[in-house]
Amino acid sequence: MAHKTQKRIKGLAIARPIIYGNVAAPLGDEKVLVPEHTHRWTVSLRGVNNEDISYYVRKVVFKLHETYPQPTRTVDKPPYEVTETGWGEFEIAIKMYFQTISGEKPVTLFHHLRLHPTDALGNPTLVDPTKPPINQPVAAYHYDEIVFNEPVEHFAQVLLENRSSELPAKSTLSNPYSLQAEQDELARLEKVNQQVEQTIEEYRERMATATKQHSQLKQEIAALEA
């Protein structure tokens, strides 16, 4: 816990971006201790540009499926990652502990381990979706930001002395988040928005036509009844 004399800085919020998730690849002919295992995977938590985040992270605890030996794995120095082999997908709890001077409580993140080329919704998770899935690594990462609201003075100083890295210009296998990916996503959202607006306009035109036809039909019925 933070020392009692440490004061929190009111109105200050400092964010630190992180990436967490996993990469996995088929074992192929590789021999492992458990014959049923089909993939080797690594789950990790790191800075957005793979920078050292130990100045604010004290340790990371990964909670694996209970069928693994010692399913609770503690990593107290970078790289914050665990490598294993297996055959099934499951949820991994990733608990971040911050440096003692921070006085901050741990934060728990959850990641669904991905081994296969698509997720539950059918979205591709391949490193390169344009290539055949055979023996190709699967990557499933998430971008998030850890926000320290009103940090204590000394911890705020440590955070400000260690500036966070910016997003890299281009995506890589270990980091799918980049300025280019951000621009691509904005372009995709703009395209979707245009498609939605076009669909709405088409429905408006169809509604106007249907309303006009309905009015004409009423007039014709009225004329026949006269």
Compact description:
The chain is built from two helices and eight strands. Strands 5-2-1-8 form a four-stranded antiparallel beta sheet. The chain has helices at residues 153-161, 179-225, and strands spanning 13-26, 39-47, 57-63, 72-75, 80-86, 91-98, 107-112, 138-149.
Describe this structure in words.
- It is found in: Nucleus.
- With 226 residues, the chain is α+β, with helices and mostly antiparallel strands.
- The chain has two domains: 13-168, YEATS domain (Immunoglobulin-like, Sandwich), CATH 2.60.40; 178-226.
- The chain contains two helices and eight strands.
- The protein has helices at residues 153-161, 179-225; strands at residues 13-26, 39-47, 57-63, 72-75, 80-86, 91-98, 107-112, 138-149.
- A four-stranded antiparallel β-sheet has the order 5-2-1-8. It has a four-stranded antiparallel β-sheet with strand order 4-3-6-7, with no helix packed on it.
- The longest helix has 47 residues, at 179-225.
Characteristics:
2 domains; extended; alpha+beta
Low-pLDDT residue intervals, each spanning 5 or more residues: none
Q: What is the architecture of the largest domain at the second tier of CATH?
A: Sandwich
Taken in chain order, the helices and strands follow as EEEEEEEEHH
- CATH homologous superfamily of the largest domain, by name? YEATS domain
